[in-house]
Amino acid sequence: MAIRDIFNKRFITDDLLASIVVFLVALPLCMGIAIASGVPPSRGLVTGMVGGIIVGAIAGSPLQVSGPAAGLAVIVAELIRDYGIEMLGPILLLAGLIQLLAGVFKLGQVFRAISPAVIYAMLAGIGVLIFASQFHVMVDDLPRASGIENLISIPNAIYKGIFFSDASNHQIAVTSHQIAALIGLVSIFTLVVWDKFKPRRLNLLPGVLIAVVVATAIAAIMKLPVKYVDVPANLASAIQLPTPASLTHLLQAPLLVEAIAIALIASAESLDLFSVWEKQQKQTGSTLVVQWDGLVERYRQPFVIGRSQRAT
Which residue among 21, 73, 81, 253 is buried most deeply as judged by most CB within 10 Å? Predict the structure, then answer.
């Protein structure tokens, strides 16, 4: 961008306003997906900053995808649980290399042989697992160790969000589940109502942003006894660089399998999203190359999440 573009009327009215809206939406989204992936929210913030600055600076493709997404949250959470958070960065670096090689050798055409129903079913399954784990968070409870346990224990979470479980507990401990559940319902209600009845003049403001602002304001003003996001004063402390020892572990077969799985799922999400564009432009392979931009800028962070569901 040239200096003169900064003073361009279209930049001020369109690009600058859009950037502010994206920032306001991405801020809670980065923290939310970080929590869903089993890492501190501060790491999600750092990842979003790095992705926005570096990808924005080097992007040059209409297929550039960058930003937080929930598609790999379940896999990231299991990866951290099995191998530790220090191995997340190296594994994702390897996944990015795999995507880069796949793009160079035009292997994106392989996805043409996969039925869209398979990809949709995979993404739907991941969505169900994320919903099951975050349902417990909505009632101020802890997610279970596995997806099946989260699904089975949803009735128990609903019970906690509606009824007082034990009169012998302190009042705050008893009511925190009900208050958190109510805040969650307010967020959902605001999101649905805004997307359906929002004024045309405020069409740029997404329902997610409005829901976050409304729910946060209610919790802060009323000082509700629910769990709040804990962000350190110095975000630099959230940065964790890969060590030579962690990089050497990539030679192990299980970690290689994890990297291949992440590369395939991330590629499938983006290739499915751009399938219509690719049919017109015949550039399937280039989409996989673009995915490298979204991973290379994140390898330094111990928290990287899949791909976005929309192009930037």
Answer: 73
Report the distance separating Cα 137 and Cα 135, nearest Å: 5
Q: Alpha-carbon distance 114 to 246, whole Å?
A: 34
pLDDT of residue 271: 65
CA–CA gap between residue 306 and residue 312 (Å, rounded)? 15
DSSP sequence for 248-308: HGGGSHHHHHHHHHHHHHHHHHHHHHTHHHHHHH--HHHHHHHHHHHHHTTTTSS------
User: Could you tell me what percent of the chain has a pLDDT over 70?
Assistant: 72
The span from the first CA to the last CA of the chain, in angstroms, equals 16
Distance of alpha carbon 85 from alpha carbon 42, whole angstroms: 14
What is the CB neighbour count within 10 angstroms for residue 147? 19
pTM for this prediction: 0.69
The DSSP H or E segment spanning 29 is: helix 17-36
Q: If DSSP codes are grouped into helix, strand and coil, which group holds residue 66?
A: coil
Q: For residue 110, what pLDDT is reported?
A: 72
pLDDT of amino acid 302? 33
Amino acid at 181: A
Long-range interactions of 231-238: CB distance < 8 A, separation 24+:
231/31, 231/41, 231/42, 231/45, 232/42, 235/42, 235/45, 235/46, 235/49, 237/42, 238/40, 238/42, 238/43, 238/45, 238/46
Q: How far is CA 251 from the centre of its chain?
A: 28
